[in-house]
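User: Could you walk me through two proteins back to back? I'd like the raw sequence and the structure tokens for each, with a short line separating them so I can tell where one ends and the next begins.

Assistant: Of course. Protein one, sequence then structure:
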Amino acid sequence: MVSVRASPRNYSTIVMFTALSPQRGCQICREVLEEYQIVANSWRFSSAYANSELYFASVDFDEGSEVNSSF
């Protein structure tokens, strides 16, 4: 696993932050996450991915509290 905070940073990372828990009340999060996953998977299975330094990640507010506290 690669740390996105490690040096050198010769790559790009796109991170989608969500709040999927019903208590959070983010109704659009699930819809947007589905679209984000489509884009990420399209990139992953494209021919350009083999030589890519572009990574997609998603972090949910309640499941990734240690990540959220870093920002």
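----
Protein two, same layout:
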Amino acid sequence: MNKSILLIFRHPPFANNSNKEALDIALGCSAFDIPVSLLFLNDSILQLIKDQRGEDINQKNLLKTFSALEMYDINDHYVIDTDMLRYNLTAQDLALNCKVILTTQQALIIRQFDTVINL
């Protein structure tokens, strides 16, 4: 049985390459049938907002890749309720269908996985 992996995103969109690197890891794991889930913490939730225009600042927009995750059987995406409130976001604002979890559930979610990668 394959070990499960949780990738934790922490950075806002276009801040550095860590978001793209985490996505590359997720896609690579999926290619080898390793179960992968994603957790978006703090400012990283901003990269999920629909209709971003990275080309305006000469940056690649990752939303197209995020929207393709389902094809790779990467279906579990988590965001924290307080981050949603902080940025006044609703589920309809996000490009991914994310499970909103309580801050108090964060540690429980993380402990469910065999490996956690925090970029």
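The beta strands are 5-9, 36-40, 76-80, 99-101, 115-118.

Let me know if you want the two compared in more detail.
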